[in-house]
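Let us practice reading a record.
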Amino acid sequence: MIRISSQQIFSGGINRLQGINSNLVDTQQQISTGKKVNKPSDDPVAAARILKLDQSLQRIETYGRNASLAENRLKQEESTLAGAVDIIQRVRELTVQAGNGSLSANDRQSISAELKERLGQLANLANTQDASGEYIFSGFQGSTPAFAKDGAGNYVYQGDEGQRVLEIDDGVTVPISDHGKGIFVDIAKALSVKSSSSADGYVSGLELIAPTDLSNAFSPGVPDDLTITVANAAGELSITANGGALDLTPAPPPVVGEEFVVAGVKLTVNDAVFTPPGPGDSFTVGVSEKQSIFGTIETMIDGLESISKTSPKSTAEYDALIAETLANLDNAQESIILKQTELGGRLNAVESTTAFLEDSGLYTKEIRSQLQDVDYAEAISNLTFQSFVLQAAQQSFARVSQLSLFDRL
């Protein structure tokens, strides 16, 4: 015969009621939070997997924000460059208009005035700032305007050549900026006469007709200036390059007043003043120069305001200015369009990565939901049953706790 004390009866009953009540509270918490795993002890294995999935979602959200930032920066740069192309196209139209031989001095002044306005607009675009106030074309020097006027009133680049990149997925980075030096400054310049030692002589008809011949003439070296020198009183010309180290004089040598081609470059030396019997006048032609788009427009403005076209030499200089400006503007447009193409490729990469991140996020959330989210129908059913069990246990305990041997005496 087993004897059970009143203390055991009460302790066992209370423990049983507390266990049923604890289960009931857990079920109520699941319904109120919508989660069936509210603490690790609820399901240790599921809790560990949920923690990893939460970390994965945080990583995806961080990369998603980075991708959104990258897209915004790239679209802003793309829009800015599109505006720059429009301005350069207008400058080109004005340059073509300036080449009209029937223009008066007032007409040229009017064109010059509009060119100055367009130059200012282009500088404003090159100094575009993002939402945080940083200049997008200044490289790593975001707090410094990309372009500003120097003491001579010419626009110069003030940033560096840094390029910012942003990670938009594990091991996937995308450049989100481009320095203004590469876009607006390092632009191939058309052939031009850099200097002349002649008071009356000039070069006309300067044109690059065979780029391959020019590169082959300097192979394997780097193209440098061409120097055309009047060799003697007969007007024969000698052509050298790379500081005189390379002799490109054709045989027989060309003469003053006649058009000739050397290393793919066509030109004519006109009306030079000779200094017999030794070397005479010389002309230096730049073949590998760089010039910023700002410098191109500034040079055009200076020419409109200073070249008078009162002599064959000044007329030739003006015509050469128009031709060089048009070529330089075309080179600038090509440089910007190439950058726009590159930006399009980056945007495509960002968009595809964003789509991948969104898909990954949805898949991860679905798996987490299967592990974490409560089934309300099941939870409510359990709650009803547990409430019934608790009520029955309470009533049973109340009856049992009242039993006593004294009732039988």
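A brief commentary: The mean pLDDT is 82.
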